[in-house]
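seq/struct pair 1
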Amino acid sequence: MFLAPIIIPAFMPLLAGGFVEIDAWAMLKNALLTILLPIIIGALLRDLLDRRMDTRPIVPAMPAVSATMAVLLMFMAVNTSTKMVMGNLGLVPPLIVSTLVVFPTLFAVSFWMSLRLFPRNGNVAITYSAGMKNLPIALGIASVSFGKEEGGLVMLTIAVAFAFQMLTAVSFYQYLRRSHARFPKENIEGA
């Protein structure tokens, strides 16, 4: 999460530079301001609140609040690009196919790696972190780094991916709940 604002601007010219004009330096500055700075402020705020009050009663609600805010942010971003999305509906089928491959693979690989590299009591949380943080980062970078036309097409990609990311996450969680005999109960409930 902390490395994404640095790694993405470095790779974007290599991966997409032939299709759109990319100013990697401007993208890096924007990513640091729109992604890394809010993460740092959030961590500092959490630390400050932990020092001043008992946050244990409200911490369990924070993932739901975070997910709700991500959904609202996604709806706002896609809504501002509705014309572009509707004008490029032919791109939706290939995007669906790619997301049907990418997200299950991402969740499976991150879960497999977490089982081998980390203690069992955190592997579901690590998997969700790896699988669910990508689109908000992509949204932040796309909204400030691309022009109107390219940004609209990126929003189409993010909108399609968002739907399948959520379906993959729910399916993954259901799979873990059904196979709880193989995984510790606290591991599944802590996600």
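seq/struct pair 2
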Amino acid sequence: MSEDDNDKIKIILVGNAAVGKTAIINRFHYNSFSDTIPSTFVVNYIDHVIKINNENIKIAVWDTAGQEKYKSLNKLFIKDSKIVIFVYDITNKGSFRGLDFWFKFIETELGQSPFLALVGNKIDLLDEEQITEEEGRECAKKMGAFFYLLSAKDENKKKRVDFFFETIVKQYLERNGHNVNKSKTIILTKNDDNDSNGIQESNNCCIGGGKSNKKRNNLNIIFLGEKGVGKTTIIKTILGDDTNVKYEQTKNITKNKYICYLDDEKKVNINLIDTNGDIKNNVKALKDIFKHCKIFFLVFDINRRETLNQLDNWINEIKKYSKEKIFINILGNKINENTAENNFVTNEEGNQFASDKGGIYTNISIKEINSLHNLIKKNVENYLKSL
């Protein structure tokens, strides 16, 4: 390795043989893929430079042997690793079970607290999936690791591989106090003298950094709909929380902090507001909430036609109390639970309803977590463009 190794962030990939560690590195560094990559039996590495907010960050990405018999070799080279990426194959349960060995191996041998990431590779083979996204996320949660799904094979998903490495390096730097100060955090501000909303761009990674004579507010996104349509579950999924717990009806209006990462590397601080189905009977609460919301997600259960029809009442209330431009989304939830043929709402019906109300229709499933993040990002981008 070169003399300036101390300036590099050392990243190491571990996991069972044939999960695709070498393929991920090849896609990231060379933008290439081969179905006939031999098993790694020595430790290899590549040097790479990631540009984050116009700053060149040097990294060294190390590839390790997946067979346990090379444990002593791996042990020799994991020293000083700052980021550890655990890789499993979504079509191979054995590789997922093997994570326990690799986690304990790193925990025992590394002797420090590296930044951890868990990657489910080969999402181009979803038809052969043996480990669900939910299982992967739960495993990552227990490990305290950043979770991501990708495909080293699919050239069209090269951006996902690049985004993954950029994201974990950013998060590692921020966690360790590195001032990636060109990264902009967009904070919605409310001038004390009037109700008009603007945006402020902060050069601090921490929310609320810097001096300002303005009161800071996050951008509010509110979820509305009848009882049991899945508002809370959608929010929990977006936040990466456990959605397998027993359902409990939301009793109060709750704000959940969320950061939306935009394509231009800016971050927007958001409140995801959860509501119960009875809030429409509380005129005072509605008036106050709608006054400060610009993006509305109206949720219905596609297996319960009446929950779509009841959105009319919500939209009337929104338009009554919202004075400025707003963005209305109609979300047809539970598309993977189609069990009510006579009560089922089709895509065409959902689109027609949204079009009549001046909104956009999307059918969703909590199994497609990335699509939920993208839905929020698209709304935030449209909102910021409208300012």
